[in-house]
Amino acid sequence: MTTEFHRIKRLPPYVFEEVNRLKAKARAVGDDIIDFGMGNPDMPTPKHIVDKLIETVRDPRTNRYSASRGIPGLRKAMASYYGRRFGVKLDPDREVIATLGSKEGFANLAQAITAPGDTILVPNPAYPIHAFGFILAGASIRHVEASSPEKFFQGLERAVRHAVPPPTAVVVSYPSNPTAQIVHLDFYKDIVKFAKEKSLWVLSDLAYAEIYFDGDPPPSMLQVPGAKDIVVEFNSLSKTYAMPGWRMGFAAGNERMIHALGRIKSYLDYGAFTPIQVAAAAALSGPQTCVDEMRAIYKGRRDALIDSFARAGWQIPAPAASMFAWAPIPEAFRSLGSLEFSKLLLEHAKVAVAPGAGFGEYGDGHVRIALVENEQRIRQAARNVRKFLSNGPGIREAKDAAQ
Question: What's the predicted TM-score (pTM) here?
Answer without folding.
Answer: 0.92
